[in-house]
Design a protein that fits this description.
Elements lengths: L1 E8 L3 H20 L5 H9 L2 E7 L4 E8 L2 H13 L8 E9 L8 H5 L1
Antiparallel strand pairs: 1-3, 1-4, 2-3
Length: about 110
């Protein structure tokens, strides 16, 4: 598994909230086969999982996308780099492509018992 991690700073709480709502809406539409932006369709065909972490008060958001191969991750990176965040969304301050070395849920066994 591989992950692309992009961090944005300087976003307004209102714009971050619009982005969260828009991402949810786009992902739900893509999952159901409804028409969406071609870049969202492209991403939905190669991305296995999406996490969006936000701190509205400080204007920080972090987007993590997971792909099962490095080639798919590079393609997702290319698509995401071609997309421009809306005004007020902040500035991308970092972007990393990484291998996921550990993915564990140690508390799951306790909760299941």
């Amino acid at each position: 598994m591989f992950a692309r991690i992009a961090r944005f700073e300087g976003g307004s709480p209102e714009v971050i909230e619009r982005q969260v709502d828009g991402l949810r809406r786009d992902l739900d539409a893509a999952k159901s086969g409804a028409p969406v932006d071609p870049s969202v369709t492209g991403l939905s065909n190669i991305v296995d999982r999406v996490l969006m972490l936000v701190d509205r008060d400080s204007g920080v958001s972090t987007m993590i996308v997971f792909c099962d191969t490095i080639d798919k991750l590079r393609e997702a990176d290319r698509i995401l780099d071609s997309m421009s965040p809306e005004t007020g969304a902040g500035k991308r301050v970092s972007r990393d492509l990484c291998e996921v070395a550990v993915d564990a849920s140690p508390g799951a066994a306790r909760r299941a018992a």
